[in-house]
Specification:
This protein is α+β, with helices and mostly antiparallel strands. Helix content is 28%, strand content 21%. It has helices at residues 20-33, 92-99, 109-112, 126-135, 140-144; strands at residues 37-42, 50-57, 60-67, 72-76, 88-89, 105-106. Strands 1, 2, 3, 4, 5 and 6 form a six-stranded mixed beta sheet that branches.
């Protein structure tokens, strides 16, 4: 796997950032297609570097994360306010519904748990490498979906 410039959310190359309104609408549509409901929305900011839409599906709750710079979606257990630990999970039905509605790639928990030692980071900017050296993420998920400021 090769991560592109902007993966950390710092000094992204010029491209349109992920739009929260569009992402939320896509999540509503995808949720309805699997008989689920959107229960919350959180915008990215200085930290985190991703939008989050919370969805209730049957007895389960899941957070759908959308990287604001790169076209990546991930699924995680919902976080409590102030919690910066992300626990990635898989949700194949929701992944299929979302990827049918957007050009973003749904990453699996296995991909997100991949060690950074197995990933090509050569496309990251020098500033991003500085951030990686400072924050010391160990997995793809920690680098892509972070709360760094």
């Amino acid at each position: 796997m090769k991560l592109l410039a902007g993966a950390t959310g710092f000094n992204p190359p010029p491209r349109a950032p992920a739009d929260l309104k569009t992402f939320t609408a896509v999540c509503h549509h995808a949720a309805r297609s699997i008989d689920a409901t959107v229960t919350g929305v959180m915008s990215s900011g200085v930290a985190p570097n991703f939008h989050r839409v919370d969805i209730a599906h049957a007895q389960h709750h899941i957070a759908v994360l959308r990287h604001t710079t790169l076209p990546f979606i991930a699924f995680a257990r919902p976080q409590a306010d102030g919690d910066v630990m992300v626990t990635f999970v898989d949700h194949p039905d929701l992944a299929a519904a979302l990827t049918n509605l957007t050009d973003a790639e749904a990453l699996t928990a296995e991909q997100l748990q991949t060690s950074l030692s197995q990933v090509d980071l050569s496309a990251l900017s020098p500033h991003e490498h500085d951030q990686v050296n400072y924050w010391k993420p160990t997995t793809v998920g920690e680098l892509l979906f972070n709360f760094w400021d």
